[in-house]
Every structure is written in structure tokens, then in C-alpha cells.
Amino acid sequence: MTTTTVSNEQLAKEYVDGVFEQLKKQNSHQAEFLQAAEEIFLSLVPVFVQHPEYIKANILSRIVEPDRIISFRVAWQDDQNQVQVNRGYRVQYSNVMGPYKGGLRFHPTVNESIIKFLGFEQIFKNALTGQPIGGGKGGSNFDPKGKSDAEIMRFCQAFMTELYSYLGPDVDVPAGDIGVGAREIGYLWGQYKRLTKAHEAGVLTGKKPVYGGSLARKEATGYGTVYFVNEMLKDANDSFEGKTVVVSGSGNVSTYAIEKAQQYGAKVVACSDSSGYIYDAEGLDLDAIKEIKEVKGDRISTYLNYRPNASFTEGCTGIWTIPCDIALPCATQNEIDGDSARTLLANGVKAIGEGANMPSDLEAINEFLDAGILFGPGKAANAGGVAVSALEMAQNSSRVYWTFEEVDAKLNQIMKNIYSESKAAADKYGYPGNLVVGANIAGFVKVANGMLSEGVY
Ligand SMILES: NC(=O)C1=CN([C@@H]2O[C@H](COP(=O)(O)OP(=O)(O)OC[C@H]3O[C@@H](n4cnc5c(N)ncnc54)[C@H](O)[C@@H]3O)[C@@H](O)[C@H]2O)C=CC1
Ligand SMILES: O=C(O)CCC(=O)C(=O)O
Question: Does 391 map to a domain?
Fold first, then answer.
């Protein structure tokens, strides 16, 4: 190792450590945000070794500070005419690559830390897709559980009334995330039109195809995750065929991850919701799950009414004790900790594909990487949803619509590209096979180069 390399390494490490220390001081109460930032920062040291110009331009301090955070009161009336108040957020993180883009989450746990972690990750994910989209995220601590359809509509209308002036097809384009699906997007879109008097279809994605949504957006995140894992498996001369798969959650991402894994010949034996998990040794009946979740909005335990030989177990983490070849965490952040990771490994898991955002904590990621199994990080593996959102924006702008097959083929190609770019970046920067480092670097370099050419702001 030459003296210059050593000093470049020291410089890079000191720079990253310094920015992270400052971040911790300023955001000491934001655990999820610091967790997401730490994972990305650690990956970027080799980039700063090779690119001191990024240090000179102080790219890291600039990229980790959102362009702006919008926080607002959402007051609405429930069915008993009581006035309820929630807090809404939109974090417009970076528009270097295109309009701010990312979902809205409605869940009681939502706070600024959660929205910032999601928004920060979204910058790099969106850059990886190769589509012209920046990064953003939003949501509210509103709990949709147990609310009537009319309450959901009134909440969405109140939320959009506060947010609409910050949005636009070339400004900021929200979509769904936990607790926000096509129904909520419909109510948000209706209110946006009512307020602006404009039919700007590209201001929201995840719309129903009947009024401007893209075919295959509903399936995109789950299918994309399986396409990504399929690329990892192919590289290892393996496939989904005959594999036992466990998928957490039973929402949008999980449902379509299960569907594609089954189409690829896997046996998916378990899935979950926030109350617990079901295990069906014969393989899950996806029609039953769709009826329970998409039609009835019921608990996953009612699966036993369709398949009496299956079992239901209360609690969220127990699902990772089920032996499987492939695990697809598709529910929420930090659902796999170090202990669950060690259990999965002891039971012989060969591949992990993160359909959710940050489902594995740092200890779990290190367990998987140290064990040398295939590990597809969320930023890369679940990018198919936002990628098809960008395709929805393109269709809206050009006023043409593509068939399901056309969109699905583009999605598959995008996931292949994300895999090969992440793999190539990991190789180039000295971490072969480490797609965490590879995806973070491949996304970061695109945005950093954009920032260098745009001057200081
Ligand atoms: N919808 C999308 O296009 C995308 C979603 N994601 C991420 O995927 C994850 C799931 O999102 P969606 O499927 O859209 O939400 P969803 O609201 O449709 O489904 C979430 C599912 O997770 C379950 N759940 C929540 N907490 C849980 C817990 N602690 N243990 C077990 N299950 C739990 C819920 O019961 C529900 O079945 C989130 O991390 C989200 O940020 C990532 C990329 C795109
Ligand atoms: O489609 C979108 O814009 C949002 C997708 C999203 O929220 C995510 O990738 O986490």
C-alpha cells in the first residue's frame, strides 16, 4: 500500500466519521434515521478514497440534509363528528435526479425520524432505477386500522388540502407505502384536482389504471423483489424452482412477492401481519390471502377458515424460526434482528431479498454478509415499485398507455440493470459480492456527480 493511499483512506474515514458525528449531535433522538445513514455512510468510505473531489465539495453533509421538511396539522372529523388531529409530513430530500419521488405512509408509528430514514434511502434507490426521479417521502401518524371508508376519505382530503401546494408532476410526486394503497391515492388525487382545477395525472402514482394509473404498478414492488433475487440466484447457478420461501407481511409488497415466487416454482409456506404469522406446509393459497387482505381487510389468522391444516402463531418475529431456503422480509423496518438472522442461518437460509425498507437491522445485515449468503438490500431489491411509478409518470406525460406485459418487461429489465450495476460497483470498490456496499455506491455516485455539476446549494 502506498503512502498516498493510506492518507487518502485516513482522510476519507475522518471525513465520513466527522459528518456522522455531526449528524448524531443534530438528530440524537432519530434512531431510524441515524441507522439508515450509518449503513450508507459506512459503505461510502471507499468512494471518498477514490474521489477526494466529493470531500472537497462536502457532498455527504449536503446530501444528508433534506432540501426541506414540511410538517403540518391534519384536522378531520370522524364518524361521530369528533374533530381528530394528526400530524402530516413530506420530506423533500433531493431533486438532483428529477422531481421528488416516494411514497406516503399512514401508520401510528410515523414520525420525522421514520420519514427521514425512508426519504434518505429513497434518493439512492431512485437513482439506481435509472429513471429521472429524485428522493422524497411523507406520511402521517394516522392509523387507518378500524376506520370507515368515509373517515379514510375525509382524512385523505384534509391531508391533501395541506400538502397540495408543495406538489406537482415536475415538483414532487407521492405514491403509496404502508397504509396507503389505490383507495387512498384515489381520494388524494380527487382532492388535488378539486383544489387545483387541473388534471395533472402525473402528480401521484399508484393510481387505478381506470383513471391514469400504470398497469403492473400494484404488482411491481413484489415482482421486482423476486426478479432481483432471481438474478442473484442465477449468478450462483441456482433458481427459485423447488425452494421453500418465507415472506413476512401480507400487504401489497408481500402479496405480489408470493405470487411471482410461486410462478417461479417456489413453495411459499408462511406470511404474516402485525398480529402474527401463518404456516402452511403444503404451500400458501394466495387466492385465500388476497380475499382476506384485498377484499375483506381481515386478520391473517382467518386463513385457517380456508385451510384448516395451516397454523397461526401470534407475534411478529417467530416467522423467522421457520426453516427456509429464501426469506423475503416484506413487512416493515427492523423486523429481522441479529437473533432472527442467526436463526435463519442456522436453519440453512441461502438468500434474503428485502422487499421492505430496512427490514434487517445492522447486526442482522452483518450476520448475513459474514455468512456469505446472497443478500439483496431493500434499496436495490424493492426498487421495482418506484421504477414503475416513474414509468407511470412517463405514460401520464406522453398520454399513452402500455400493456401489462410491456410494463412488466421494462420492470424486469430495470431490476436486472440494478443488480448488475450494484454488483459492478461492489467489485470496482473492492467488496465483491457485497450488494449493500454496491447498491449504496452505485446510487450515491450518480447523485454526487449531479451535485458536482450543479454548483453549491
Ligand atoms: N408499496 C410499495 O410500492 C413499496 C413498499 N415498500 C416497503 O415495503 C413494506 C411493506 O409495504 P406495503 O406492502 O406497501 O404496505 P401494506 O400496508 O400494504 O402492508 C404492510 C404489511 O405488513 C404487515 N405488518 C406491519 N407491521 C408488521 C410487523 N411488525 N410484523 C409483521 N407484519 C407487519 C401489515 O399487517 C401488512 O400486512 C414497507 O417497508 C414499505 O416501506 C418498499 C418499496 C415500495
Ligand atoms: O412509487 C413510489 O413513488 C413510492 C415507492 C416507495 O415508497 C418506496 O420505494 O419505498
Answer: no
To the nearest whole number, what is the mean pLDDT of the chain? 97
- Measured CA to CA, the distance from residue 6 to residue 1 in angstroms comes to 7
pLDDT band at residue 33 using 50, 70 and 90 as cut-offs = very high
* Contact status, residue 172 vs residue 136, Cβ threshold 8 Å: yes
Q: Which of the ligands is closest to the CA of residue 120?
A: 2
Distance (Å, whole) CA 439 – CA 430: 13
Q: Could you give the CA distance from residue 314 to residue 274 in angstroms, rounded to a whole number?
A: 9
Instruction: Return the ligand 2 atom nearest residue 125 CA.
Output: 9
DSSP for 253-297, written as a single string? HHHHHHHHHHHTT-EEEEEEETTEEEE-TT---HHHHHIIIIII-
Give CA torsion, residues 122, 126, 127, 130, to 10 deg.
170
Collapsing DSSP states into helix, strand and coil, what is residue 374? strand
Q: Is residue 240 part of a domain?
A: yes
Q: Reply yes or no on whether 137 is catalytic.
A: yes
Residue nearest to atom 15 of ligand 1 (CA): 178
Decide if 328 contacts 221 (C-beta within 8 A). Answer: no
- State if residue 251 touches ligand 1 by the CB under 6 angstroms criterion: yes
Spacing, Cα 178 to ligand 1 middle (Å): 5
129 and 233, same domain (yes or no): no
Choosing from 125, 137, 207, 423, the catalytic residue is: 137
445 in a domain, yes or no? no
Using most ligand atoms within 8 A of CB, pick from 110, 122, 147, 252 the residue to mutate for ligand 1: 252
Q: Which of these, 39, 14, 27, lies nearest to 444 by C-alpha position?
A: 39
CA pair distance 248, 382, nearest whole angstrom: 14
Secondary structure letter of residue 336 according to DSSP: B
Q: Which ligand has the shortest distance to the CA of 330?
A: 1
Where residue 1 falls among pLDDT bands split at 50, 70, 90?
Answer: very low
Please say which residue of 38, 64, 90 terminates a domain. 64
Residues 6+ positions from 327 with CB-CB distance below 8 Å: 245, 246, 247, 320, 336, 344, 349, 351, 352, 353
Instruction: Tell me whether residue 331 is in a domain.
Output: yes
92 lines ligand 1 (CB under 6 A): no
Query: How many domains does the chain contain in total?
Result: 3
pLDDT at 398: 97
For residue 37, give its domain range: 3-64
pLDDT digits (tens, 9 = 90+) for 198-211: 999 999 999 999 99
Of the residues 35, 64, 93, the one at which a domain ends: 64
